[in-house]
């Protein structure tokens, strides 16, 4: 177990270096010069552009720039933004907690409501409530998140006025509820369907019959025997979903004016702020890696037959 | 089960860690301001400035809004484009080459330091110095000695420009390299603001917490969310704040800002997004703002490209007449633009009615002119634009109009964003035409010609070059007085129609608005809302 975790952690190092290099190269390959773009449409002075680039080391070859960047990173220095001249770590620290909060909110919502709905429907397949859930989730899956976002915003904020149309204070949980639900809706549908199918299928399995035959109370049959086995695919999905939720927040953050990581990376991308994009993306990579590790470890919790050496 | 137990423990630890970070994030948000600002403050959707708040390092609109509230230059302009003296008592010249500036006495920076000749001269020398990498340093290039502090290569040879001399504490002279009758108009640009002594101690820190001499005093900058400034009681200029302060609030989309204006969480919006344009007048009622300002959109041919190399201007005139500006501005652009009638927008000195039909839709004549001019090579061309700025719709419409009227095939050449678009322009890689745009830096017609179509102009990305026109512009710059210069540039504009360095499309209009809580929202010549004059109800 311990060795397994250590091995997985060591594997993360080449993955991390590889993915950051890849993103770095991609940013480099994009046309458009960040310093020049800063000057805008109007007249500018090429001498100033050259001078700024030299100062930032942007005139060096790609690998040299990457090496410089990684050296900085190991010393805890994410670099400085070209235009605003703020440390990138400050920028990330401003935006990251906001997205994390939004994501965790959405994730909790997905987990509780999604699994809950799935269990309710899966236990009684082909009844009215099951069909109701299938229709609802079909509706959610087919609805693009920006449509749902605008719709809910219109209903809740303008018609009923129970919430503000945009998030003015990202620390306020009540303001984050609407964006979190919109963000969660797509995953919610997947999770509910996945749970429902898995439960409905396992209901007919041998161990279930055995458990019922042993005369175990229903609560234990469902809570321990059925749920544990049925949740394996759901947990896999949820683990990967943490990362997707964080990156998927771009659209939702836009609609509800949430100043999170999604907007930050979008801004940085259009302004060719390479170091900011790589910094945020590296964090995302780390989160994905951590999430997949947690998922793998959770398998063992759910199914004792799975062991790690 | 042993494996399972330890896995449980690990997973549990990670969940706790995640929860802990979430809590940490939560508590840091406490105590921040909620939706509406302090009483008497007005709010506007001005986003995060790109750069630190240093006057000569900002030329995008978010930053310049804030800088204009914190700093005051020598002079400003009224809605007609005439000079209004702010910090200067007068700016005069006898020969258009040496200018004498007299400052008003008793002006102070927000930290109590007096604004003197030195505040200006030191600041300008610092801005112009190449070592300081100021984006707008080229604005000082007309001053004598600029090349010493800002050489094309290498380190500066001097720390100061020889053209700037203090006569006494409140008088100084500016000597130019050449005559320029409209130089005083340039002084109204935000770049020419003075700096207090504290700036030179730590310019970097100053950029985050500026001390100016303007109508508002800096309060706080909550990055990507809000900049707050407070009305400064001791301000003596004509544009003294009529409200208690301003909140510049960052919004991610025009739609989000618009929703907040309608619901009362925001006082003013600078631009209504395309989705809300059809209904914003109903929504905002008296608060809806629709006004022209001094900016123009053009199609600029790349005169180095295969298509437009050695093109006969008649072809360009023909293409211009094939564009149905009236219909496109009304339908595709939702009345947010006014069809252009020349190269200079209204609101600047020297705006005139060119006696020509080149800008009027006339398919028959368009066809004929293109034929006379020898046609467009290959009978097709492209228009380059950036897809991140909402240009796709009108480019498509313009192409459609040209194709229908003349049979010349026209297609858009989209670039994913502005940075890519600019790079293609800078590297002379435009295949046909590109979409050009220009907002007045100062309200004189020269700004729309000399800076765009002179052979040596930095923004002349189409590489238009015509000796006769260069000569006429140089002559206009040598004129004795502003009026003569303006008149000479009017002659240049008439000549431009014959050579067509670009096809003017339309002038910009601001379509903004304000909510019910504020009043007296006006627009200045370059399309900015005059925040200082806004009153709260």
From TrEMBL, chain A:
<feature type="transmembrane region" description="Helical">
    <location>
        <begin position="102"/>
        <end position="121"/>
    </location>
</feature>
<feature type="transmembrane region" description="Helical">
    <location>
        <begin position="276"/>
        <end position="302"/>
    </location>
</feature>
<feature type="transmembrane region" description="Helical">
    <location>
        <begin position="176"/>
        <end position="195"/>
    </location>
</feature>
<dbReference type="InterPro" id="IPR045621">
    <property type="entry name" value="BPD_transp_1_N"/>
</dbReference>
<comment type="similarity">
    <text>Belongs to the binding-protein-dependent transport system permease family.</text>
</comment>
<dbReference type="InterPro" id="IPR000515">
    <property type="entry name" value="MetI-like"/>
</dbReference>
<dbReference type="GO" id="GO:0005886">
    <property type="term" value="C:plasma membrane"/>
</dbReference>
<dbReference type="Pfam" id="PF00528">
    <property type="entry name" value="BPD_transp_1"/>
</dbReference>
<dbReference type="InterPro" id="IPR035906">
    <property type="entry name" value="MetI-like_sf"/>
</dbReference>
<keyword id="KW-1133">Transmembrane helix</keyword>
<feature type="domain" description="ABC transmembrane type-1">
    <location>
        <begin position="96"/>
        <end position="299"/>
    </location>
</feature>
<dbReference type="Pfam" id="PF19300">
    <property type="entry name" value="BPD_transp_1_N"/>
</dbReference>
<feature type="transmembrane region" description="Helical">
    <location>
        <begin position="12"/>
        <end position="30"/>
    </location>
</feature>
<keyword id="KW-1003">Cell membrane</keyword>
<protein>
    <submittedName>
        <fullName>ABC transporter permease</fullName>
    </submittedName>
</protein>
<keyword id="KW-0472">Membrane</keyword>
<feature type="transmembrane region" description="Helical">
    <location>
        <begin position="133"/>
        <end position="156"/>
    </location>
</feature>
<keyword id="KW-0812">Transmembrane</keyword>
<dbReference type="GO" id="GO:0055085">
    <property type="term" value="P:transmembrane transport"/>
</dbReference>
<keyword id="KW-0813">Transport</keyword>
<feature type="transmembrane region" description="Helical">
    <location>
        <begin position="230"/>
        <end position="256"/>
    </location>
</feature>
TrEMBL record, chain B:
<dbReference type="GO" id="GO:0043190">
    <property type="term" value="C:ATP-binding cassette (ABC) transporter complex"/>
</dbReference>
<feature type="domain" description="Solute-binding protein family 5">
    <location>
        <begin position="88"/>
        <end position="458"/>
    </location>
</feature>
<dbReference type="Pfam" id="PF00496">
    <property type="entry name" value="SBP_bac_5"/>
</dbReference>
<keyword id="KW-0732">Signal</keyword>
<dbReference type="GO" id="GO:0015833">
    <property type="term" value="P:peptide transport"/>
</dbReference>
<feature type="signal peptide">
    <location>
        <begin position="1"/>
        <end position="22"/>
    </location>
</feature>
<dbReference type="GO" id="GO:1904680">
    <property type="term" value="F:peptide transmembrane transporter activity"/>
</dbReference>
<dbReference type="InterPro" id="IPR039424">
    <property type="entry name" value="SBP_5"/>
</dbReference>
<dbReference type="InterPro" id="IPR000914">
    <property type="entry name" value="SBP_5_dom"/>
</dbReference>
<protein>
    <submittedName>
        <fullName>Peptide ABC transporter substrate-binding protein</fullName>
    </submittedName>
</protein>
<dbReference type="GO" id="GO:0042597">
    <property type="term" value="C:periplasmic space"/>
</dbReference>
<dbReference type="InterPro" id="IPR030678">
    <property type="entry name" value="Peptide/Ni-bd"/>
</dbReference>
């Amino acid at each position: 177990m311990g060795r397994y975790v250590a091995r997985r952690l060591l594997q993360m190092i080449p993955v991390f270096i590889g993915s950051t290099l890849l993103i770095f190269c991609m940013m480099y390959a994009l046309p458009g010069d960040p310093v020049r773009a800063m000057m805008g449409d109007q007249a500018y002075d090429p001498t100033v552009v050259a001078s700024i680039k030299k100062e930032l080391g942007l005139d060096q070859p790609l690998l040299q720039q990457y090496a410089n960047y990684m050296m900085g990173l190991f010393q805890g220095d994410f670099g400085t933004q070209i235009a605003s001249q703020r440390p990138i770590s400050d920028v990330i620290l401003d935006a990251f907690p906001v997205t994390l909060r939004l994501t965790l909110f959405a994730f909790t919502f997905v987990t509780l409501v999604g699994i809950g709905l799935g269990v309710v429907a899966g236990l009684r397949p082909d009844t009215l409530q099951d069909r109701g859930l299938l229709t609802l989730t079909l509706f959610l899956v087919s609805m693009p998140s920006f449509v749902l976002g605008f719709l809910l915003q219109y209903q809740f904020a303008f018609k009923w006025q129970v919430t503000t149309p945009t998030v003015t204070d990202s620390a306020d949980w009540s303001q984050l509820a609407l964006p979190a639900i919109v963000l969660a809706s797509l995953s919610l549908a997947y999770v509910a369907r996945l749970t429902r199918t898995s439960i409905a299928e396992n209901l007919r399995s041998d161990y279930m019959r055995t458990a019922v035959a042993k005369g175990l109370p229903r609560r234990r049959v469902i809570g321990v025997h059925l749920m544990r086995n049925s949740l394996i695919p759901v947990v896999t999905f949820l683990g990967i979903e943490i990362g997707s939720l964080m990156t998927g927040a771009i659209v939702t953050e836009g609609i509800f004016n949430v100043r999170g990581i999604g907007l930050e990376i979008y801004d940085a991308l259009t302004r060719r702020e390479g170091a900011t994009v790589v910094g945020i993306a590296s964090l995302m990579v780390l989160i994905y890696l951590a999430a997949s590790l947690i998922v793998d470890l959770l398998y063992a919790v759910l199914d004792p037959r799975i062991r790690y050496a | 089960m042993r494996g399972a137990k330890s896995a449980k423990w690990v997973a549990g630890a990670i969940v706790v860690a995640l929860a802990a970070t979430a809590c940490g994030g939560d508590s840091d948000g406490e105590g921040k301001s909620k939706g509406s600002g302090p009483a008497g403050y007005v709010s506007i959707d001005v986003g995060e400035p790109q750069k630190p708040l240093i006057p000569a390092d900002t030329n995008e609109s978010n930053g310049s809004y804030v800088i204009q509230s914190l700093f005051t230059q020598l002079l400003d302009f009224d809605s007609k484009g005439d000079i209004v003296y702010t910090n200067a008592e007068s700016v005069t010249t006898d020969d258009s080459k040496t200018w004498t500036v007299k400052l008003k006495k008793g002006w102070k920076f927000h930290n109590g330091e007096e604004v003197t000749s030195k505040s200006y001269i030191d600041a300008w020398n610092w801005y112009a110095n190449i070592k300081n990498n100021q984006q707008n340093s080229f604005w000082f290039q007309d001053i004598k000695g600029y090349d010493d502090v800002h050489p094309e290569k290498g380190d500066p040879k001097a720390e100061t420009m020889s053209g700037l001399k203090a006569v006494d504490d409140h008088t100084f002279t500016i000597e130019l390299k050449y005559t320029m009758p409209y130089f005083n108009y340039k002084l109204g640009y935000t770049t020419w603001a003075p700096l207090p002594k504290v700036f030179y101690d730590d310019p970097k820190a100053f950029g985050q917490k500026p001390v100016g001499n303007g109508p508002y005093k800096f309060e706080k900058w909550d990055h990507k969310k809000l900049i707050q400034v407070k009305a400064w009681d001791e301000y003596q200029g004509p544009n003294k704040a009529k409200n208690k302060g301003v909140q510049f609030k960052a919004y991610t989309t025009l739609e989000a800002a618009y929703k907040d204006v309608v619901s009362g969480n925001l006082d003013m919006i600078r631009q209504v997004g395309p989705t809300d344009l059809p209904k914003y007048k109903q929504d905002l009622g008296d608060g809806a703002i629709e006004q022209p300002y001094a900016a123009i959109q053009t199609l600029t041919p790349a005169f180095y490209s295969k298509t437009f190399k050695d093109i006969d201007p008649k072809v360009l005139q023909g293409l211009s007449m094939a564009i149905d500006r009236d219909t496109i501005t009304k339908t595709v652009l939702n009345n947010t633009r006014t069809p252009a009638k020349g190269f200079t927008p209204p609101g600047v000195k020297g705006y005139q009615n060119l006696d020509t039909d080149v800008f009027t839709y006339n398919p028959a004549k368009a066809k004929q002119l293109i034929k006379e001019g020898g046609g467009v090579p290959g009978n097709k061309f492209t228009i380059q634009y950036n897809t991140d700025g909402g240009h796709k719709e009108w480019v498509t419409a313009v192409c459609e109009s040209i194709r229908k009227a003349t049979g010349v095939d026209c297609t858009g050449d989209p670039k994913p964003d502005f940075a890519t678009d600019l790079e293609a322009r800078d590297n002379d890689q435009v295949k046909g035409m590109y979409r050009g745009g220009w907002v007045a830096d100062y309200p004189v017609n020269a700004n729309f010609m000399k800076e765009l179509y002179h052979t040596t102009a930095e923004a002349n990305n189409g590489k238009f070059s015509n000796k006769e026109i260069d000569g006429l512009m140089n002559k206009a710059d040598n004129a004795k007085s502003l009026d003569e210069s303006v008149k000479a540039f009017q002659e240049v504009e008439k000549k431009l129609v014959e050579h067509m360095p670009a096809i003017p499309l339309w002038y910009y209009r601001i379509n903004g608005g304000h909510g019910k809580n504020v009043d007296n929202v006006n627009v200045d010549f370059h399309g900015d809302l005059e925040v200082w004059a806004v009153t709260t109800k």
